[in-house]
Amino acid sequence: MRKENSTNALNAQELYETCGMAIALRILGGRWKPGIIWNLAQGRIRYGQLKALIPNISERMLIQQLKELEKYGFVERFVFPEVPPRVEYALTEEGKTLIPIVQALAAWGDSQRDKIKLPV
Amino acid sequence: MRKENSTNALNAQELYETCGMAIALRILGGRWKPGIIWNLAQGRIRYGQLKALIPNISERMLIQQLKELEKYGFVERFVFPEVPPRVEYALTEEGKTLIPIVQALAAWGDSQRDKIKLPV
DNA sequence: TTAATTACTAACAAACAAGTAAGAAATGAG
DNA sequence: CTCATTTCTTACTTGTTTGTTAGTAATTAA
Fold it and tell me: A21: domain range?
Protein backbone atom coordinates (compact mmCIF):
# COMPACT_ATOMS: atom_id res chain seq x y z
CA MET A 1 0.00 0.00 0.00
CA ARG A 2 1.30 3.42 -0.89
CA LYS A 3 1.31 6.22 1.62
CA GLU A 4 0.15 9.32 -0.15
CA ASN A 5 1.95 11.78 2.03
CA SER A 6 5.25 10.17 2.78
CA THR A 7 8.22 12.21 1.66
CA ASN A 8 8.98 9.24 -0.47
CA ALA A 9 5.70 9.45 -2.36
CA LEU A 10 5.84 13.22 -2.63
CA ASN A 11 9.31 13.12 -4.10
CA ALA A 12 8.16 10.58 -6.65
CA GLN A 13 5.15 12.72 -7.53
CA GLU A 14 7.23 15.85 -8.04
CA LEU A 15 9.58 13.99 -10.31
CA TYR A 16 6.73 12.79 -12.49
CA GLU A 17 5.67 16.39 -12.93
CA THR A 18 9.03 17.71 -13.95
CA CYS A 19 10.89 14.85 -15.51
CA GLY A 20 9.77 12.73 -18.43
CA MET A 21 12.36 10.14 -17.63
CA ALA A 22 10.79 9.53 -14.25
CA ILE A 23 7.51 8.79 -15.99
CA ALA A 24 9.19 6.46 -18.44
CA LEU A 25 10.97 4.60 -15.68
CA ARG A 26 7.79 4.33 -13.73
CA ILE A 27 6.21 2.49 -16.66
CA LEU A 28 9.25 0.54 -17.75
CA GLY A 29 10.95 0.03 -14.45
CA GLY A 30 10.82 -2.74 -11.94
CA ARG A 31 12.19 -6.19 -12.30
CA TRP A 32 9.61 -7.75 -14.56
CA LYS A 33 8.10 -5.14 -16.82
CA PRO A 34 10.94 -5.21 -19.33
CA GLY A 35 10.50 -8.92 -19.90
CA ILE A 36 6.75 -8.62 -20.07
CA ILE A 37 6.85 -5.86 -22.63
CA TRP A 38 9.58 -7.59 -24.59
CA ASN A 39 7.53 -10.75 -24.92
CA LEU A 40 4.30 -8.94 -25.65
CA ALA A 41 6.12 -7.13 -28.42
CA GLN A 42 6.19 -10.43 -30.29
CA GLY A 43 2.41 -10.49 -30.41
CA ARG A 44 -0.73 -11.47 -28.56
CA ILE A 45 -0.14 -14.23 -26.09
CA ARG A 46 -1.87 -16.21 -23.38
CA TYR A 47 -1.21 -15.58 -19.74
CA GLY A 48 0.24 -19.02 -19.19
CA GLN A 49 2.59 -18.81 -22.14
CA LEU A 50 3.81 -15.44 -21.01
CA LYS A 51 4.55 -16.89 -17.63
CA ALA A 52 6.48 -19.74 -19.23
CA LEU A 53 8.54 -17.27 -21.23
CA ILE A 54 9.63 -15.31 -18.18
CA PRO A 55 11.70 -17.57 -15.95
CA ASN A 56 11.18 -17.30 -12.21
CA ILE A 57 8.36 -14.83 -12.32
CA SER A 58 5.65 -15.59 -9.80
CA GLU A 59 1.99 -15.39 -10.68
CA ARG A 60 1.54 -12.60 -8.25
CA MET A 61 4.17 -10.45 -9.94
CA LEU A 62 3.03 -11.27 -13.44
CA ILE A 63 -0.59 -10.40 -12.75
CA GLN A 64 0.32 -7.32 -10.82
CA GLN A 65 2.51 -5.90 -13.54
CA LEU A 66 0.06 -6.79 -16.28
CA LYS A 67 -2.72 -5.05 -14.40
CA GLU A 68 -0.63 -1.96 -14.03
CA LEU A 69 0.28 -1.86 -17.70
CA GLU A 70 -3.36 -2.44 -18.55
CA LYS A 71 -4.48 0.33 -16.26
CA TYR A 72 -2.31 2.84 -18.08
CA GLY A 73 -3.44 1.62 -21.44
CA PHE A 74 -0.27 -0.05 -22.68
CA VAL A 75 -1.64 -3.55 -22.56
CA GLU A 76 -4.98 -5.01 -23.61
CA ARG A 77 -6.67 -8.03 -22.11
CA PHE A 78 -8.85 -10.44 -24.09
CA VAL A 79 -10.98 -12.84 -22.12
CA PHE A 80 -12.58 -15.94 -23.63
CA PRO A 81 -15.55 -17.34 -21.75
CA GLU A 82 -14.23 -20.86 -21.52
CA VAL A 83 -13.38 -23.32 -18.82
CA PRO A 84 -10.61 -23.57 -17.91
CA PRO A 85 -10.25 -19.86 -18.54
CA ARG A 86 -8.36 -18.40 -21.45
CA VAL A 87 -6.99 -14.88 -21.35
CA GLU A 88 -4.75 -13.27 -23.90
CA TYR A 89 -2.65 -10.17 -23.54
CA ALA A 90 -1.30 -7.79 -26.15
CA LEU A 91 0.29 -4.38 -26.42
CA THR A 92 -2.08 -1.57 -27.37
CA GLU A 93 -1.09 0.89 -30.09
CA GLU A 94 0.16 3.14 -27.32
CA GLY A 95 2.04 0.25 -25.83
CA LYS A 96 3.78 -0.39 -29.10
CA THR A 97 5.43 3.01 -28.87
CA LEU A 98 7.46 1.44 -26.09
CA ILE A 99 9.12 -1.05 -28.38
CA PRO A 100 11.87 1.19 -29.78
CA ILE A 101 12.65 2.42 -26.29
CA VAL A 102 12.88 -1.07 -24.98
CA GLN A 103 15.12 -2.06 -27.86
CA ALA A 104 17.41 0.88 -27.31
CA LEU A 105 17.71 0.08 -23.63
CA ALA A 106 18.34 -3.59 -24.30
CA ALA A 107 20.99 -2.82 -26.90
CA TRP A 108 22.78 -0.42 -24.62
CA GLY A 109 22.60 -2.86 -21.74
CA ASP A 110 23.97 -5.68 -23.86
CA SER A 111 26.84 -3.48 -24.97
CA GLN A 112 27.72 -2.97 -21.31
CA ARG A 113 27.53 -6.54 -20.17
CA ASP A 114 31.21 -7.29 -20.66
CA LYS A 115 32.42 -3.93 -19.44
CA ILE A 116 30.83 -3.76 -16.05
CA LYS A 117 30.18 -6.27 -13.37
CA LEU A 118 27.04 -5.73 -11.41
CA PRO A 119 27.13 -6.69 -7.75
CA VAL A 120 25.55 -9.87 -6.56
CA MET B 1 23.27 -4.79 2.79
CA ARG B 2 22.36 -7.20 0.03
CA LYS B 3 21.76 -10.84 0.77
CA GLU B 4 23.57 -12.79 -1.87
CA ASN B 5 21.30 -15.78 -1.74
CA SER B 6 17.87 -14.32 -1.40
CA THR B 7 15.54 -15.30 -4.18
CA ASN B 8 15.29 -11.63 -4.80
CA ALA B 9 19.00 -11.22 -5.43
CA LEU B 10 19.23 -14.40 -7.48
CA ASN B 11 16.40 -13.30 -9.71
CA ALA B 12 18.09 -9.98 -10.25
CA GLN B 13 21.37 -11.70 -11.07
CA GLU B 14 19.80 -14.02 -13.61
CA LEU B 15 18.13 -11.13 -15.32
CA TYR B 16 21.40 -9.29 -15.69
CA GLU B 17 22.81 -12.31 -17.43
CA THR B 18 20.02 -12.74 -19.92
CA CYS B 19 18.52 -9.33 -20.43
CA GLY B 20 20.32 -6.18 -21.50
CA MET B 21 17.42 -4.09 -20.40
CA ALA B 22 17.82 -5.27 -16.84
CA ILE B 23 21.40 -4.05 -16.92
CA ALA B 24 20.37 -0.72 -18.38
CA LEU B 25 17.69 -0.23 -15.78
CA ARG B 26 20.10 -1.15 -13.04
CA ILE B 27 22.33 1.72 -14.13
CA LEU B 28 19.63 4.18 -15.05
CA GLY B 29 16.96 3.22 -12.59
CA GLY B 30 16.12 4.45 -9.16
CA ARG B 31 14.66 7.76 -8.29
CA TRP B 32 17.67 10.00 -8.63
CA LYS B 33 20.00 8.66 -11.27
CA PRO B 34 18.06 10.10 -14.18
CA GLY B 35 18.35 13.60 -12.79
CA ILE B 36 22.00 13.16 -11.96
CA ILE B 37 22.88 11.92 -15.40
CA TRP B 38 20.75 14.56 -17.04
CA ASN B 39 22.55 17.33 -15.22
CA LEU B 40 25.98 15.85 -15.70
CA ALA B 41 25.22 15.67 -19.39
CA GLN B 42 25.46 19.48 -19.44
CA GLY B 43 29.08 19.31 -18.35
CA ARG B 44 31.42 19.08 -15.42
CA ILE B 45 29.89 20.40 -12.26
CA ARG B 46 30.56 20.74 -8.56
CA TYR B 47 28.87 18.52 -6.03
CA GLY B 48 27.06 21.41 -4.40
CA GLN B 49 25.74 22.76 -7.67
CA LEU B 50 24.51 19.38 -8.67
CA LYS B 51 22.68 19.12 -5.41
CA ALA B 52 21.10 22.51 -5.99
CA LEU B 53 19.94 21.43 -9.44
CA ILE B 54 18.14 18.37 -8.13
CA PRO B 55 15.33 19.48 -5.86
CA ASN B 56 14.71 17.44 -2.72
CA ILE B 57 17.62 15.09 -3.12
CA SER B 58 19.37 14.41 0.16
CA GLU B 59 23.13 14.39 0.47
CA ARG B 60 23.05 10.75 1.34
CA MET B 61 21.24 9.83 -1.86
CA LEU B 62 23.30 12.10 -4.08
CA ILE B 63 26.59 10.73 -2.81
CA GLN B 64 25.40 7.18 -2.91
CA GLN B 65 24.25 7.37 -6.50
CA LEU B 66 27.34 9.25 -7.62
CA LYS B 67 29.57 6.64 -6.03
CA GLU B 68 27.70 3.90 -7.79
CA LEU B 69 27.95 5.60 -11.15
CA GLU B 70 31.62 6.25 -10.50
CA LYS B 71 32.20 2.64 -9.56
CA TYR B 72 30.88 1.44 -12.90
CA GLY B 73 32.87 4.00 -14.78
CA PHE B 74 30.13 6.30 -15.98
CA VAL B 75 31.10 9.23 -13.84
CA GLU B 76 34.46 10.76 -13.02
CA ARG B 77 35.39 12.61 -9.87
CA PHE B 78 37.86 15.47 -9.73
CA VAL B 79 39.09 16.50 -6.31
CA PHE B 80 40.81 19.81 -5.64
CA PRO B 81 42.95 19.91 -2.52
CA GLU B 82 41.33 22.97 -1.06
CA VAL B 83 39.50 23.89 2.08
CA PRO B 84 36.59 23.90 2.10
CA PRO B 85 36.74 20.98 -0.28
CA ARG B 86 35.94 21.25 -3.95
CA VAL B 87 34.90 18.23 -5.94
CA GLU B 88 33.68 18.18 -9.49
CA TYR B 89 31.82 15.45 -11.28
CA ALA B 90 31.53 14.67 -14.96
CA LEU B 91 30.39 11.90 -17.25
CA THR B 92 33.14 9.71 -18.64
CA GLU B 93 33.23 8.85 -22.34
CA GLU B 94 31.39 5.69 -21.45
CA GLY B 95 28.92 7.68 -19.44
CA LYS B 96 28.21 9.90 -22.40
CA THR B 97 26.85 6.93 -24.30
CA LEU B 98 23.96 7.18 -21.88
CA ILE B 99 22.89 10.56 -23.13
CA PRO B 100 20.89 9.45 -26.18
CA ILE B 101 19.17 6.80 -24.09
CA VAL B 102 18.29 9.29 -21.45
CA GLN B 103 16.97 11.67 -24.07
CA ALA B 104 14.84 9.00 -25.68
CA LEU B 105 13.38 8.02 -22.33
CA ALA B 106 12.70 11.61 -21.38
CA ALA B 107 11.04 12.36 -24.70
CA TRP B 108 8.82 9.33 -24.49
CA GLY B 109 7.92 10.11 -20.89
CA ASP B 110 7.06 13.69 -21.75
CA SER B 111 4.85 12.51 -24.57
CA GLN B 112 2.93 10.41 -22.05
CA ARG B 113 2.50 13.01 -19.37
CA ASP B 114 -0.91 14.19 -20.56
CA LYS B 115 -2.17 10.77 -21.48
CA ILE B 116 -1.70 8.93 -18.25
CA LYS B 117 -2.06 9.86 -14.65
CA LEU B 118 0.37 8.19 -12.34
CA PRO B 119 -0.89 7.33 -8.90
CA VAL B 120 0.06 9.39 -5.92
C1' DT C 1 -16.50 -38.00 -6.69
C1' DT C 2 -12.39 -36.80 -7.45
C1' DA C 3 -8.74 -34.77 -9.90
C1' DA C 4 -7.02 -31.67 -13.41
C1' DT C 5 -6.96 -27.49 -15.66
C1' DT C 6 -6.14 -22.10 -15.97
C1' DA C 7 -6.21 -17.41 -14.58
C1' DC C 8 -6.24 -15.08 -10.75
C1' DT C 9 -6.55 -13.32 -5.42
C1' DA C 10 -5.34 -12.55 -0.59
C1' DA C 11 -2.56 -12.64 3.56
C1' DC C 12 1.76 -12.56 5.11
C1' DA C 13 6.99 -12.14 5.27
C1' DA C 14 11.48 -10.97 3.57
C1' DA C 15 14.42 -7.88 1.09
C1' DC C 16 15.44 -3.60 -0.55
C1' DA C 17 15.35 1.58 -1.45
C1' DA C 18 14.80 6.00 0.32
C1' DG C 19 14.58 9.54 4.00
C1' DT C 20 16.30 11.80 8.56
C1' DA C 21 19.52 13.53 11.53
C1' DA C 22 23.73 14.18 13.40
C1' DG C 23 28.46 14.90 12.82
C1' DA C 24 33.57 14.73 10.89
C1' DA C 25 37.45 17.00 8.64
C1' DA C 26 40.39 21.03 7.51
C1' DT C 27 41.09 25.61 7.01
C1' DG C 28 40.28 30.79 6.82
C1' DA C 29 37.62 34.76 8.75
C1' DG C 30 36.23 37.28 12.67
C1' DC D 1 38.64 30.44 20.29
C1' DT D 2 34.61 29.98 17.65
C1' DC D 3 32.18 29.85 13.47
C1' DA D 4 31.18 29.04 8.61
C1' DT D 5 32.18 26.47 4.68
C1' DT D 6 31.84 22.06 1.70
C1' DT D 7 31.94 17.27 0.79
C1' DC D 8 31.07 13.50 2.63
C1' DT D 9 29.91 9.44 6.47
C1' DT D 10 27.30 6.86 9.85
C1' DA D 11 23.43 4.96 12.34
C1' DC D 12 18.79 4.61 12.28
C1' DT D 13 13.74 4.70 10.65
C1' DT D 14 10.22 4.55 7.29
C1' DG D 15 8.27 3.11 3.00
C1' DT D 16 8.01 0.18 -1.15
C1' DT D 17 8.85 -3.90 -3.88
C1' DT D 18 9.29 -8.65 -4.32
C1' DG D 19 8.58 -13.46 -2.88
C1' DT D 20 5.82 -17.47 -0.60
C1' DT D 21 1.99 -20.03 0.27
C1' DA D 22 -2.45 -21.29 0.03
C1' DG D 23 -6.61 -21.01 -2.08
C1' DT D 24 -10.86 -19.67 -5.50
C1' DA D 25 -13.97 -20.54 -9.68
C1' DA D 26 -16.14 -23.50 -13.13
C1' DT D 27 -16.13 -26.99 -16.02
C1' DT D 28 -14.40 -31.53 -18.19
C1' DA D 29 -12.37 -36.18 -17.94
C1' DA D 30 -11.50 -40.36 -15.39
Answer: 1-27
